Amino acid sequence: MPRVEATRTVPVPLEIAFAVSQTHGPIRLEWDPFVRSQHLIDADEPAKGVRTRTVSRHRLKMTSEYVSYRPPTQVGMKMVEGPWFFSSFGGGWTFAAGASDQETLATWRYTFRARPTWLAPIADRVGVWLLGRDIEKRLEAYAAACRNPSVLAAVHG
């Protein structure tokens, strides 16, 4: 199963880093270059088993489900319904204490299976390249959000 991964050190404590990653609504749209719209389907707060509907800036739609939710260190999701070219898609974001208590190491990973299977040898390479670009841009924007006063005020408030 192909996998893409990116890591950044962000200048906030672990709890804040996790909270920024889990923002929704206007705050999420302010920093996340991937998301065009996103909302929780069956709950007001993220938790294991909660589903999320996301429309990407590419206009791709996906319903995902939290398979793990362990503040402030880990969150994982799996695709329940999504673009035709994925037979499966999952993501995991982990957060670990950095060199000081004011730093967090954020690692984001995506795994996927392309379809049709006969196209996988090519689709996997293209998918790794495209998702690799997206995850790098997204994580860079997340790192900037961890320095953005309005985003930080929203998670503190």
Provide a quick synopsis of the model.
Helices cover 31% and strands 39% of the residues. The chain has 157 residues and is α+β, with helices and mostly antiparallel strands.
Looking at this protein, list some descriptive labels.
157 residues; alpha+beta; Alpha-D-Glucose-1,6-Bisphosphate, Chain A, domain 4; seven-stranded antiparallel sheet
Describe this structure in words.
The protein is α+β, with helices and mostly antiparallel strands and 157 residues long. It has helices spanning 14-21, 25-31, 120-145, 149-156; strands at residues 3-10, 35-40, 51-56, 61-70, 74-81, 86-97, 104-114. The protein has one domain (3-156): Alpha-D-Glucose-1,6-Bisphosphate, Chain A, domain 4. Helices cover 31% and strands 39% of the residues. A hairpin with a 4-residue loop joins strand 3 and strand 4.
Task: Report the strand count.
Answer: 7
Q: Which descriptor suits the 3D outline?
A: globular
CATH class descriptor = Alpha Beta
Q: What order do the SSEs take from the amino end to the carboxyl end, as H and E?
A: EHHEEEEEEHH
Q: Number of domains in the coordinates?
A: 1
The radius of gyration is 15 Å
What fold name goes in the CATH topology slot? Alpha-D-Glucose-1,6-Bisphosphate, Chain A, domain 4
Largest sheet: 7 strands, antiparallel
The order of strands across the largest sheet is 1-7-6-5-4-3-2
User: CATH superfamily assignment?
Assistant: START domain
Return the average pLDDT rounded to an integer.
95
Q: Tally the helices: what do you get?
A: 4
Low-confidence stretches: none
The oligomeric state is single chain
**Helicity, as a percent range:** 25-40%
CATH architecture: 2-Layer Sandwich
Instruction: Indicate the structural class.
Output: alpha+beta
